[in-house]
Design a protein that fits this description.
GO molecular function, one term: DNA-directed DNA polymerase activity
Strand order of the largest sheet: 4-3-2-5-6-8
Shape: elongated
Low-confidence stretches: 1-7, 197-207, 325-333
Oligomer: single chain
Order of helices and strands: EEEEHHHEHEHHHEEEEHEEHEEHEHEH
CATH architecture of the largest domain: 2-Layer Sandwich
GO cellular component, one term: cytosol
Keywords: Exonuclease, Hydrolase, Nuclease, Nucleotidyltransferase, Transferase
CATH topology of the largest domain: Nucleotidyltransferase, domain 5
InterPro entries: BRCT_dom_sf, DnaQ, Ribonucl_H, RNaseH-like_sf, RNaseH_sf
Radius of gyration: 22 Å
Domain Exonuclease: 19-184
Strand content: 15-25%
Helix content: 25-40%
Length: 333
């Protein structure tokens, strides 16, 4: 799956997937590649959230276990335990063909890939989903989105916080009602692709999660820009859409929908911007204000999502290019 494929960013909650792999790791520190994993738990779930297989193990990290007061694991407890290399094969089977899910997925995923690199293994992960971002989209009205707060909200008992297996089981139990609520409210799931970074010799050094805004702003549009949005008319593929700070939906969900519809995401506002999504009627700063200065139309988030129901097909960029003209070829990149 290409990280530059707009269709790979997010999907409707009612659209079938290939299942989930809920993971949690406890570590000796906070820097992947330097700190090590001291315990790992992974639960393979069906698309509707039922557990199908599981993996849990303490790990001998070969280094000081770090914050014992957090994870409760001492050097004596980890002595003689398996290494990551001993369990990576079983972990691969849990992950295979599923979207990796974690609470703050960037942390867990970074540590897993760093450990896999050390034993020259490659994890079969193409997409990930962060339950922090998913919970944020549901607008639950909670004080914070920590795992223990979500557990209390959904009535899930958390026995041992910061224990990898307990945290993974709690997250798996939370995931089921969260997915149901996302379907009921027609939300999009933040299922994001992962990208691979390599050195010039082609050796995989590590994989990383790119922020959606960064990738989306760099994606070349497949369609020519048809110009400004006209109120009362439909959206047209290729329109350049910016998102102001003053929106009630999360930026990530709006950007996913922009890409999926064949529109182009614009990180800044200029004369070529077709519209700006903004829930403030008269913004006094930022992209909404810039839109007013340039005469670019403002559309509220809810109205914008409604307009995405019918988007007119755009004109492919290739129709305007001559494959033998070097200048036209440069325009594609």
């Amino acid at each position: 799956m290409s990280s530059t494929d707009a269709r790979s960013w997010g999907r409707p909650a009612d659209q079938a997937g290939s299942g989930w792999a809920v993971v949690d790791v406890e570590t000796s520190g906070f820097r992947p590649g330097q700190a090590r994993i001291v315990s790992v738990a992974a639960l393979a779930l069906s698309d509707d959230g039922n557990v199908e297989k599981s993996l849990y193990s303490l790990l001998n990290p070969g280094v000081d276990p770090g914050p014992t007061h957090v994870h409760g694991l001492t050097a004596e407890m980890l002595e003689g335990q398996p290494t990551f290399g001993d369990v990576v094969g079983d972990l691969i089977e849990v992950l295979r063909g599923r979207t990796l899910v974690a609470h703050n997925v960037g942390f867990d995923y970074a540590f897993l890939t760093a450990e896999a690199e050390l034993v020259q293994a490659e994890l079969p992960v193409e997409t990930v989903m962060c339950t922090v971002e998913l919970a944020r989209r549901l607008d639950l009205g909670l004080e914070n989105l920590r795992l223990e707060t979500l557990a209390a909200h959904w009535g899930v008992t958390q026995m041992r916080p910061h224990d990898a297996l307990d945290d993974a089981m709690v997250l798996a139990q939370i995931l089921k009602p969260v997915l149901v609520r996302a379907q009921e409210h027609r939300k999009w799931l933040p299922v994001h692709p992962v990208s691979r970074r390599t050195w010039p010799n082609g050796r995989v050094t590590h994989e990383e999660l790119r922020p959606l805004k960064v990738v989306a702003a760099r994606l070349p549009s497949r369609y020519a820009n048809p110009g400004r949005f006209v109120p009362g008319r439909p959206l047209v593929q290729g329109m350049r859409v910016a998102v102001a700070a003053e929106v009630n939906h999360t930026h990530e969900e709006l950007i996913e929908r922009i890409l999926q519809a064949g529109l182009a995401y614009a990180e800044s506002v200029d004369a070529h911007t077709s519209l700006v999504v903004c829930d403030a009627a008269a913004p006094e700063q930022g992209k909404g204000f810039q839109a007013g200065e340039l005469g670019v139309p403002l559309i509220g988030g809810t109205d914008f999502l409604r307009l995405l129901g019918v988007v007119v097909g755009g004109t492919a960029v290739e129709e305007f290019t001559d494959p033998d003209d070097p200048d036209d070829q440069l325009a594609l990149f």
